[in-house]
Write a structure and sequence with these properties.
Blueprint lengths: L1 H15 L4 H11 L4 H4 L4 E10 L2 E4 L5 E4 L4 E7 L2 E10 L2 E6 L11 E10 L2 E8 L4 E8 L2
Antiparallel strand pairs: 1-2, 1-3, 1-9, 3-4, 4-5, 5-6, 6-7, 7-8, 8-9
């Protein structure tokens, strides 16, 4: 008699602590409301000369160029023959990137990132930190 009562109690406790299936969509819709002013600092061409992940900092001899376009599209150009395309949104420091074509070694994975922008004189830096695997990208540019 104890086992059925215990099982029923456990089942009730577990089922009461779960989100409804529609809750994820409500959160997602709220997260992607875009304000134009959120994006002004990220528009344009950036040089990505270093990354950090797995305890190792990588410095590039030839820096890939990252373009964040005002229409929410972007590209990563590693050399004249390799270009990766992605779509992005930025809302209150949360950068979401979705690749338009999946490659095995894309620079940015489809994920949510923290983006922090630092302006000093004519230099602007952005650190894009991936939440999933503790990986960071360091981008910079000069304002004219």
């Amino acid at each position: 008699m104890k086992v059925p009562i215990f099982s029923l109690t456990l089942l009730l406790l577990i089922s009461c602590n779960q989100l409804n299936p529609g809750d994820d969509k409500k959160i997602e819709k709220t997260q992607f409301k875009i304000n134009i002013s959120d994006n002004l600092d990220i528009y344009g061409k950036w040089s990505m000369c270093s990354t950090f992940g797995n305890g190792v900092m990588t410095q590039f001899n030839v820096c890939p160029l990252v373009y964040f376009n005002s229409n929410g599209s972007g590209t990563v150009s590693k050399n004249s023959s390799t270009t990766e395309k992605f779509n992005w949104t930025l809302k209150k420091g949360i950068l979401t990137i979705k690749n338009t074509i999946k490659f095995p070694n894309t620079t940015f994975s489809d994920s949510i990132y923290f983006a922090s922008i630092n302006k000093q004189n004519k230099n602007v830096d952005i650190v894009i930190h991936q939440l999933k695997n503790d990986y960071s990208y360091f981008l910079s540019r000069q304002n004219e």
